[in-house]
Write a structure and sequence with these properties.
The chain is of the alpha/beta class. The chain folds into 2 domains: 28-121 and 248-317, Bordetella uptake gene, domain 1 (D-Maltodextrin-Binding Protein, domain 2); 123-221, D-Maltodextrin-Binding Protein, domain 2. 43% of the residues lie in helices and 18% in strands. The longest helix is centred in the C-terminal third of the chain and has 22 residues, at 296-317. The radius of gyration is 21 Å and the shape is globular. This is Tripartite tricarboxylate transporter substrate binding protein. Belongs to the UPF0065 (bug) family.
Length: 322
């Protein structure tokens, strides 16, 4: 009897020390997206949130907070209760590039929040307006060299993946071009399609439909292998610039202090959702790859390694926000 009481007391202590996952989520979950609607982070957030809502019988409500390349979204996440009812979906820009772009961050993307998982990776490609009359990266470089500083490239905003991927390309090619920030990839593309900007670096998931339609021409994809979404677009190595490597990703984060069991639960649920054909096939169809084993610990390690890789690249381009 004494042993039984001791065991019951021990189990009671363990239970009280852990969140009662049977009560989570206890109310609707806000899913903040650090970028504008229509981009890859938004696609990830909406597909997965819809599936989680059905799976967990509680609404996961997506809210876009694109201002400041993720700064506004991080601030809102930091002010939320650390109980898993406010989440953040970002990208390479919000979770790594900002560390090199800002002198200081009120909420550091590695240590100022807790992490859950990475739901997808998406390669970066470069598309040009047909009026440039170029079909290869070499021709593109020659045109930009012929009129220094007279060409422009749009992005989804200052400090975003498209901004830095464009600046990185310009730096590696040794040319000049003027960056024009927009509020989202779609807004930037509107001016590219209209010929008001010259080129745009963005995810292949966003650009592929436009490349296939012939609205723009893809000249390089910043990965070692071609994408089945735009198989005619050469890799950076094939285009003669192997150093141009850029892939964004969709991280899911929570308020700092969110208990690990809650984050582990969310990771497991998202992993299951990513196995659903209507979710996985849609993400893959727009050029994403789905990673495996990206639990909270692995996600934090991955983000740390990406910060180490990208901060020197950001600083080498000379790009800054403040």
């Amino acid at each position: 009897m004494v042993r039984l009481i001791a065991v019951l007391l021990l189990l009671s202590g363990v239970a009280s020390a852990q969140p009662r996952l049977g009560e989570y989520p206890a109310r609707p979950v806000r899913v903040l997206v650090a970028l504008a609607a229509g981009g890859n982070a938004d696609i990830n957030a909406r597909l997965i949130s819809t599936a989680l809502s059905a799976r967990l019988s509680q609404q996961f409500v997506v809210e876009n907070r694109p201002s400041g390349g993720g700064i506004v979204a991080f601030g809102e996440l930091a002010r939320a209760a650390p109980d898993g009812h406010t989440l953040l979906v970002g990208a390479l820009g919000s979770h790594a590039l900002n560390v090199g772009l800002y002198r200081s961050l009120a909420v550091h993307p590695l240590t100022g929040v807790d992490h859950i998982t990475i739901s997808s990776h998406s390669a970066i490609a470069v598309a040009v307006h047909p009026s440039l009359g170029v079909t290869t990266l070499a021709e593109f470089r020659a045109v930009l060299l012929s009129r220094p500083g007279q060409f422009t490239y749009g992005s989804s905003g200052n400090g975003t993946t498209g901004h830095i991927a464009g600046a990185m390309l310009v730096s590696l090619l040794g040319v000049e071009a003027v960056h024009v920030p927009y509020r989202g990839s779609a807004a930037a593309f509107t001016d590219l399609a209209g010929g008001r900007t010259s080129f745009q670096a963005d995810t292949i998931s966003f650009l592929s439909d436009h490349i296939r339609a012939g609205t723009v021409r893809g000249i390089v994809i910043a990965t070692p292998v071609r994408s089945r979404m735009a198989p005619e677009v050469p890799t950076s190595a094939e285009a003669g610039l192997p150093a141009y490597q850029a892939t964004t990703w969709a991280p899911w984060s929570a308020t700092l202090g969110t208990p690990l069991p809650v984050r582990q639960f969310l990771y497991e649920q998202i992993a299951e959702v990513l196995k659903l054909p209507d979710v996985r096939d849609r993400l893959v169809a727009v050029g994403n790859t789905i990673p495996e084993g990206m639990n909270p610990e692995a996600t934090r390690a991955f983000i740390g390694s990406e910060i180490e890789r990208w901060v020197p690249i950001v600083r080498a381009t000379g790009a800054s926000v403040d």
